[in-house]
Amino acid sequence: MTEAHVAVDPHASAVGMWRRYVFSTDHKMIGRQYMLLSLLMAVLGGATAYVMRWQLAWPQSSVPFTGWLPESLAYQGVIDPAFYNQLVTMHGTIMIFFVAMPMLLGGLGNCLVPLMIGAPDMAFPRLNMLSFWTFFAASMLLLSSFLVPAGAASAGWTMYAPLSARPIYTGVYWGINLWLIAVALEFVAFLLGGINLVVTTINLRASGLTFMRLPLMVWMELTSAVLFLLSVGPLIAGVLLLLLDRLAGTSFFVPNDGDPLLWQHLFWFFGHPEVYVLLLPGVGAVLEILPVFARKPVFGYRAIVWSTAATGVLSFMVWAHHMFISGIDPRLATPFSITTILISVPLAIVLFAMIATLWRGSIRFATPMLWALGFIATFLVGGLTGIFVGAAALDVYFHGTYFVVAHFHYALFPSVFFGGFAAIYFWYPKMFGRMLSERLGQLHFALTFVAFNAVFLPMFVLGLGGHMRRIYDPTVYEFLRPLMPLHVAATVATIVLLFSQLPFVINVIGSRRFGRPAGPNPWRAATLEWTTPSPPPHGNFASAPTVYRGPYEYSVPGAGEDVLPQNQPPRLRAATPSAV
Amino acid sequence: MNGLNAIAGETSGVPSGKLGIWWFLASETMTFGGLLGVFVLTRYAAGGWHDASEHLHVWMAACNTLILLTSSFTMARAHAAALRHERRATLHNLLATIGLGLLFLGIKALEYASELRAGFTPHSGPFWGFYYGLTGLHAAHVLGGLIALAVLAVATARGQSWDLVERRVESTGLYWHFVDVVWIFLFPLVYLS
Amino acid sequence: MRDWFPHNISAVGGAIDGLFGLIAAITLAWFVVTLGVLVWFMFRYRRRDTEAAQYVRGDTRAELAWLLLPAALVLALDVVIDTSSDGIWRRMKLEMPPADLQLAVTGKQFAWTISYPGTDGVLGTADDFSLDAELHVPAGRNVRVVLRSSDVLHSFFLPNARLKQDAVPGRAIDLWFNVTEPGRYDLACAELCGFGHTTMKGSLIVHTPDEFAAWMASHAGSAAAAAASQAAPPAKIG
């Protein structure tokens, strides 16, 4: 095994501001760049949600703070229906492609994977920098689509054809073209980043760090990267074809030569694995946090690894459950229903393993642990409600209603935000050398937890009532009018949810100056990142670490301490249980 | 931060650059495979599009197939020369590959020009949409490969260390062979069916 | 929870509501048990100085059983759900009964156009007529619809019949329903189709069979009659 090249750069202090903060090739700086950009985009994603929700609760009223919008979008604050569709589209697009992906893969993946495997950096640092700036360019392109004539894309984040294939159907010309190019560029950025993650994990592991000793966060990032790499191809092809339909007059997705369903197949073949790409890093963060704050190993490490792999494989076989009533041959519902019920099993195993990790533990309720526990409780709802829409006959009723919206927000929000915040609160001390305020963290969690449920729980009821998605004024329909109080409740909760993020912002900014110095291992955790200074220097480790055991050796009998770090050599009279 | 272009580390036994290229090619396989698969399915559902495909210049494309195969051969020779640390031979074979690649693109451009003059644009029909899309995407990949080869040729000529040259020639060669393989599927499916 | 659904007027709709009930019972049970265990563990195993954490890896057979047996139960219950769903799906989509009434519905930006066969009961003849946004049917009869779109994707949604089917341009998709209670109900579009998506609403008007026959007769015939019927107020129920 080649010893990893340790590069503690003697010239680090002489590097200028541009090289250090902007065009850095250090994975930790790049990770922070992704993280910061994703959080800024999250503000925009939240803003789109605010406007939509206000319109839904009080249709045709003037939405506060929208006075600066041009009249074509919002005449005296009253949202135009076409603009509403743009908000719907951009909300989903921003949250999935420009918040979740950069936060979870670009941010957490970059910051953590090299540190957790004992490597000085990612395998391809310059490629890493290129990936971020490609992503940055994609983000700017997407944002610019708000400013072009006729505005941003408005056919939903799913961009179904033929609505998206001919400009005349939406009235949007440049907006959708820019959307397609921005998303394609984002795909390229994460393709390159994904290759970096995979090669780094395979090739740069420290001596003694076998695959079955990897922290589960690394397993999850690896699986996410692999899923993305293998699923994105067909949609890149689809984006190219859709661009040709829009710009070159072809008819890939428009009758009579083309088939609108073809777009859906290409989209969801990627789209379904993508939801697991978004889920797994959050799961990984939770699996890192639970053992630390319960002071015992993760329950069923191997079962979790195999379940994750099974989920990944199955995720390529379920895509048409998004298309049950799309016009596909009805006989296809049976095989896709079977694969869909199968995929619930490995995920259930992971969830059970999380809970079992708490059994006979000694639980400390620090802020990261609160988020991790909150994830389990809320993702449980997301997973269970998937069963309703996975049953084809019931999906006939629920497809295209708020039931689906509630289901996927209960799956995605826990993954991205509960998992993401868990990770941020857990690893912030490592990345910035300061502790975050526990009080503010608890407040942030409590407010977010309550507000999140208050926003999306009513939406299940809306779905039961048959409330269609992407409707800009429910009062047009008699049968929806009795449901309006639910909209009001969800909107009020949305505003609370948005304000609930303030403690987090204050915490992060304030702790940079006022936070207690963290030291290398404030949580007394076992994995390799906690053996370096906080923040780690360029090159991460003074000398390449050697790993002797698994990542969760807490409360090992006879060990003296309640944690055995991965790189601590075994005592000579080895009564300590060595790792797998 | 000072220009490390790759961190050394080979826990798997396979060099990182090679591993990276393989994963990249896996993703590219899904892209081209997806597009080709859609083309094949659509074509045969629609009855073959024989009328449209008769207007293609099969002989030009056949020449291009030979050109691309030869360029893979010169690429392999470049790799062999790099392993033998023969700088001249490596460089010449890289340049030959580039030349052949440029020839491929030139002939492709002539094909396009002829077809466009005859009035066959991407929206002339479903076959033409796929034709331009598939061959255009492939040509873009050829161009990308040529740029990578050019950068590599310059580095080789400038006396870069053999360690780096060997690995880069191998990785770029893998990519170039992939581009060739895609064409080997594309040619019969588009031109000969 | 059943009250939160729109009033069901279709036989198949009853089966769908039943399936909902089955899934709701199963998932609610899982939710209560799983959340209950989680909260219990949070309380029972909170840090106390009197009790240390136990080194449990969960890799022995006995320990793994705690994961695999519940997972097997998840699978078993999923199979039960799926089997029930499959049967209902077949009824809805695969085993279509012969039509007592054949209609054609076409979605467009932004209205539903329903074509009626007139008194001869056959579509495509001289006594056909079309109405926008009004779907008149007789109660207790098998109504078959051939669904089309003239521009983008739409989705034909009858909440009270628990019926939904995407309308795809370039395709003609068959569907059927049988609704049992006279009355006026909603027809909506459930697939984003542009800036007018919200306004693409209509009404399902269920007549008794006799009333329906009379209504059809009064609307069928020449183009003039068709134009007149489009200007006339909707038929009264009673």
CATH architecture assignment name of the largest domain in chain C: Sandwich
Provide the β-strand percentage band of chain C: 15-25%
Main sheet specs of chain C: 5 strands, mixed
Distance between the termini of chain C: 30 Å
Number of domains of chain B: 1
Give the name of the CATH superfamily of chain B. Answer: Cytochrome c oxidase, subunit III, four-helix bundle
Total beta strands of chain B = 0
Coarse structural class of chain B? mainly alpha
N-to-C SSE string of chain B, H for helix and E for strand: HHHHHH
Overall geometric form of chain B: elongated
**Assembly state:** heterotrimer
Strand order of the largest sheet of chain C: 3-2-1-5-8
Q: List the uncertain runs of chain C.
A: none
Number of DSSP strands of chain C?
A: 10
What Rg of chain B do the Cα atoms give? Answer: 19 Å
Number of discrete helical segments of chain C? 4
Name the poorly predicted regions of chain B.
Answer: none
The CATH architecture assignment of chain B turns out to be Up-down Bundle
Structure described in brief:
By secondary structure, chain B is an all-alpha fold. Helices cover 80% and strands 0% of the residues of chain B. The model of chain C has no long low-confidence stretch (mean pLDDT 91).
Descriptive overview:
- The complex is a heterotrimer of chains A (580), B (193) and C (238).
- Chain A has 580 residues and is an all-alpha fold.
- In chain A, 61% of the residues lie in helices and 1% in strands.
- The longest helix of chain A has 37 residues, at 81-117.
- The radius of gyration of chain A is 24 Å and the shape is globular.
- The model of chain A is unreliable at 1-11 (pLDDT under 50).
- In chain B, helix 3 runs antiparallel to helix 4 (87-117), helix 3 runs antiparallel to helix 6 and helix 4 (87-117) packs antiparallel against helix 5.
- Chain B contains 6 helices and no strands.
- Chain B has helices spanning 16-46, 50-53, 58-83, 87-117, 126-157, 162-192.
- Chain C has 238 residues and is of the alpha+beta class.
- Helices cover 37% and strands 24% of the residues of chain C.
- In chain C, helix 1 (11-44) runs antiparallel to helix 2 (61-94).
- The model of chain C has no long low-confidence stretch (mean pLDDT 91).
- The chains are: A mainly alpha (580), B mainly alpha (193), C alpha+beta (238).
- Chains in contact: A-B, A-C.
- Chains A and B meet through helix 4, helix 6, helix 7 and helix 8 of A and helix 1 and helix 5 of B.
